[in-house]
Amino acid sequence: MSDAILSPAQTARALPFSALAQEIAALLQDPTVAVPPRIVQPLDGGGSLFVMPAADARVAITKLISFIPGNAQRGLPTIQGDIVVFDVQTGQRVALLDGPTVTARRTAAVSLLAAQHLATRRDGPMLIVGAGVQGRAHLEAFREGLGVQEVWVSSRSSASADALVAHAQALGMRARRVDDPNAALADCPLVVSTTPAQQVVLTALPRSDAFVAAVGAFTPRMVEWSADVCRHLAQTGTLVVDTRDADHEAGDLLQADIDVSALPTLADVVRQTQAWQDASRPEGGPVFFKSCGWGGWDLAAARCLRHTQQG
User: Fold this and answer.
1) pLDDT band at 225 (very low <50, low <70, confident <90, very high)
2) Which residues of 242-270 are buried (b: 16+ CB within 10 A; e: fewer)?
3) Spatial distance between the Cα atoms of 153 and 131, rounded to a whole number of angstroms
4) Are 269 and 290 in contact (CB under 8 A)?
5) What PANTHER family does UniProt report for this protein, alphabetically (predicted)?
6) Which of 51, 59, 73, 178 has the fewest CB atoms below 10 angstroms from its CB?
7) How far apart are CA 148 and CA 126, in angstroms?
8) What pLDDT is attached to residue 282?
9) Burial, 294: exposed, middle or buried (Cβ in 10 Å; 0-12, 13-18, 19+)?
């Protein structure tokens, strides 16, 4: 890779969802990957500063982003920042990626990879709860990687929901707005929740054949799904977390008093480890995939960029 400062559009073009999901799967099986715990610095006013380093045998990255929930009311992005990519052998900076774009695309690609392994019904309709940046990224990822053709969108902002519906229709999908996401759960075998996670939004049970990607809550204090629903899913379905970092970050599950440390991770699923085999329920039931984020996903994005540029 040559030294490059990528705009948001250039960053997006370098990270196709399907290729990024494949890179994430490869990263989970690479023994050279090292990802220390991320630093989360609280900021005055309720925001946070995240510092997330990661490296493998060839590439090292540091992600530096701010998360300011109140920016939605200011007309500003809630996530801002950059990802610096270095060559491990020379120490040279080889790229600077747009942080919010990488965050959106790698998070959706993680959900896509989980769905590719865990979803039993891929035909939809797909319910997206939360019509912001992550809602849009997940819509595009599941269309590209799973072939989803029908999407229902729910948001506390009707304008945001209508905008995402229009975007889906422009992509050739069937799409409509739904005002009650809990009622819609009965009709949707694919569910993605990407709300601001400041309060419980989802209180109804998913279908018995549902795959749920719960993305919005990524700190212990954040929550989208009610504790009763999470406890019910723990008894009747299968819970999977993205990484072991979720042990202390998965707000939905922690607030339901679920032992997150006992749950299998996406790496267990990809590697088909004993932990995953023990967690699988032969009788089926819904799958609840809890995603909290990890610096390794950003490293996968840097690896994907390298392959894109070399190809």
Assistant:
1) very high
2) bbebbbebbbbbbbbebebeebbbbbbbb
3) 7
4) no
5) KETIMINE REDUCTASE MU-CRYSTALLIN
6) 73
7) 7
8) 52
9) buried
Q: What is the pLDDT of residue 307?
A: 77
Phi, psi of 225, rounded to the nearest 5 degrees: -100, 140
Residues recorded for the chain: 311
Cβ atoms of residues 213 and 193 within 8 Å:
yes
Using pLDDT thresholds of 50, 70 and 90, give the confidence band for residue 283. Answer: low
Tokens matching residue 227: 């504790």
Contacts of 95 (CB under 8 A, 6+ apart): 1, 3, 4, 5, 6, 84, 85, 302, 305
Query: Are the C-beta atoms of 278 and 257 separated by less than 8 Å?
Result: no
Tokens found for residue 181: 């996401």
- Using the 8-state DSSP alphabet, how is residue 155 labeled? -
pLDDT digits (tens, 9 = 90+) for 116-130: 999 999 988 999 999
- Report the distance separating Cα 84 and Cα 41, nearest Å: 19
* Averaged pLDDT for residues 213-227: 95
Torsion of CA 220, 226, 229, 231, to 10 degrees: 40
3-state SS assignment for residue 7: coil
- Domains of the chain from N-terminus onward: 4-102+296-310 (3.30.1780.10), 104-294 (3.40.50.720)
Give all strands of the β-sheet with 93-98 in edge-to-edge order. Answer: 4-5, 93-98, 79-87, 59-67, 48-55, 39-42
Cα 87–chain centre separation: 26
In the sheet with 126-129, reading across from the earlier edge strand, the strands are: 174-177, 150-154, 126-129, 190-193, 211-214, 287-290, 238-241
Q: Is the pLDDT of residue 15 over 70?
A: yes
**Average pLDDT rounded to a whole number, residues 170-188:** 98
Instruction: Give the closest residue to 301 by CA, choosing from 140, 36, 35, 109.
Output: 109
What is the percentage of the chain residues whose pLDDT exceeds 90? 85
Mean per-residue pLDDT, 8-16: 96
